[in-house]
Design a protein that fits this description.
The protein is α+β, with helices and mostly antiparallel strands. Helices cover about 40% and strands about 25% of the residues. Helix 1 packs antiparallel against helix 2.
Length: about 220
Amino acid sequence: MGTLRPQFRQRFRQRFRQRWQLLFHPSVERQGLAHQARYGRSPAIAEAGFTLLELLVVLLLIGVLASIAAPVWLSFLDNQRLAQAQDGAFRALREAQAKGRQRKRVWEACFRDRNNQVEYSVHPRVGSGGCDNASWQSLLAEASGAAGVAIDPANTTLASKGEAYRMQFQDNGWSNGQLGRVTFQLRGRNDARRSCTFVSTLLGALRGDQDKGCLR
């Protein structure tokens, strides 16, 4: 009995000290002390970090989301490139038509595919034409490269000379010679998507189309 009384007294003092600290510490620290008094360890140690299983689940979810989002994003970029090529061809043809009216002479718009890049030129016709005095520049704002677009020769029906395709406009803005279209495809891929720009009437009307509307 004599040895039990000091032990009881010591436990009582320890519990009293813990209760006293709970009353005068901030709420977070009170929770920590309560946790420590109840379980004999700090919650910072008990709850620190993630388990390996939780990390694996998070990585798995990230991988699934990436596998869904990546193809959609790449398809969107491809469609944007085709649309930019179509818009660039339309602007080049419209510029040649406007220059013909302004300068009162025949102007031509030329297109070619060289070094993995689609190029164009708008200039006055020299002789019978054929892009002989072309000043070539990139059709797209960014270099197309291997991941960009290319001219589809099988479905481009403009008059051609060598590697260049051209469309001429008279001094009144009307078409001069062969009508047709310039068609673009994704470079180096077996993909059915296309974009194209037509010169569809002798009056020089321009229009765009895509996919099946660009095929022969």
